[in-house]
Design goal:
It contains 8 helices and 10 strands. It has helices at about 15-25, 30-35, 40-55, 75-100, 110-125, 140-145, 145-160, 225-240; strands at about 25-30, 55-60, 65-70, 105-110, 130-135, 160-165, 180-185, 195-200, 205-210, 215-220. Strands 4-10-9-8-5-6-7 form a 7-stranded mixed beta sheet, with helices on both faces. It starts with 12 loop residues before the first helix and ends with a helix.
Length: about 240
């Protein structure tokens, strides 16, 4: 083993060399430490001060001269644990900064394939028993995607993925509002959405429906903050919607 291994415990190169020398020779003066460690005398003083503050080195006076000795290496474990505690306290703030700086990834697919990609991404992303929220449901998926959409509903049911869905009021008595594994509500008549918005995991997806031309468009945005914000919108709309 060489002194550099101690750097893995968080010691600087000079601290590692000084502490390693003291472990080997037990008690030593500044001159002996400087000679054996190869560290410049001024840096030895600085390293010793830091090691003393970390309780890894102690000293005593003999004939008015300071002698240094290494403390139990087990204190290195305590040092690492203390750093870990400090990091855990900082972690929530660091994560918040990271989330604010992460740019959302956006995918846009035109045509009916764009709408299909949104539905397929929901099935790829969510695990059995998880759910997604959607508002602005118009029933256009039944009309424009036909059998493909019915097959999607079957696959969703088989995977056990539930949904909370808010439909436009005009769809209330249609087949489109009878979804499997779903809690369904309807917007008040005075509100109407032409864009279906899906919130799942850390994603928000939107389908702008249109027959050819203009084409439908599927948009998938992956961003935690974005998903939380739209999740709040959904909860507000859920409260003002009726069964």
């Amino acid at each position: 083993m060489d002194a550099s291994q101690l750097e893995k415990a968080g010691l600087s190169p000079s601290e590692s060399k000084v502490y390693f020398v003291l472990l080997h020779i037990g008690v030593a003066s500044i001159s002996e430490i400087t000679q054996r460690s190869g560290v410049h005398r001024r840096n030895v003083y600085d390293a010793l001060d830091r090691l003393i503050s970390k309780s890894l080195v102690s000293y005593f006076l003999k004939n008015k001269k300071k002698y240094y000795q290494a403390e139990n290496p087990g204190k290195l474990i305590e040092l690492v644990k203390e750093k870990e505690k400090r990091l855990l306290l900082l972690l929530p703030q660091l994560q918040a900064i990271h989330e604010e700086s992460v740019r959302p990834t956006v995918r846009i697919v035109e045509g009916k394939e764009g709408a299909k990609e949104v539905f397929n991404d929901i099935l790829r992303t969510l695990k059995k028993g998880e759910h997604y929220c959607v508002f602005g449901v118009t029933g256009n998926a039944f009309v424009l995607l036909g059998d493909w959409y019915k097959n999607y509903l079957r696959r969703r049911r088989e995977k056990g993925i539930r949904t909370r869905a808010i439909f436009n009021y005009g769809v209330k008595y249609s087949e489109a509002s009878k979804l499997p594994l779903a809690s369904v509500r309807f917007l008040p008549k005075k509100f109407k959405s032409f864009v279906a918005t899906f919130i799942y995991a850390n994603k928000v997806a939107q389908v702008i429906w249109g027959d050819e031309p203009p084409p439908s468009i599927g948009i998938i945005i992956e961003n935690e903050q974005f998903a939380r914000t739209y999740g709040n919108y959904f909860e507000w709309m859920w409260k003002i919607s009726t069964k």
